[in-house]
Amino acid sequence: MLEYSDIRVGKIILYEDEPCLVLENHVARTQQRKPQNQTKLRSLLSGRAYTATFHASDKAEEAEIAKRDVKFLYSKGNEFWFCDPTNPANRFKLDEKLLGNAVKYLKANENATALIWGEDEDEKIISVQVPVKMTFVVKDAPPSIKGASASGSGKQVTLENGIILTVPMFINAGEKIIVNTETGDYVERA
Residue 184: how many CA atoms within 13 Å on its side-chain side? Predict the structure, then answer.
């Protein structure tokens, strides 16, 4: 059980009998009232968004989520095929809606982490997480302008997976860069 103040961004709690990811939280302490934690939640089963307020006397049950490594194979339409890294014959497909933002960063034959909720026969994959930092090849980049890097501005490039990203002026096509998958920002050259 989590106290009201322990319900923070990134935690997965049970809310209305569904595992929900805490997207935002703010503990408000006013002079006249008791403190309360105002949260924004997203159901990992249905994708619905909730706003919930937890008071000092409230508790929330932390969802028991198991993590398992999976390997992304390929996508076909809205179907994304994965397998067990130790047994490639054990394949399964997941819907695009279930994957959320991770869909943009999936690379063929790369590992990801599946979040599993439920007991033995009722086990269900509710989400897939990609590593926080991933390496991508810059597919298309405008030419660098001499002296432009001093201004600190950036340029738009297209990565191998089709994402358009703002990077420093010195990055050229064909280079490998590291991207933060949580924020979608350029981190550094690989």
Answer: 12
